[in-house]
Amino acid sequence: MLGVRFDGRLSASPVVNSEPGTVPFAVSFDFHGHLVIAESGTNALATFALAADGTVSLIDQVPTGASATCWVASAGPFLFASNAGSASESGYVSSSGGQLSLLGAATTDPGTVDASAAAGGRFLYVQTGGNGIVDEFAVGAGASLTEIGAVTVPGAAGGEGIVAF
Question: What was the pLDDT predicted at 1?
Answer without folding.
Answer: 59
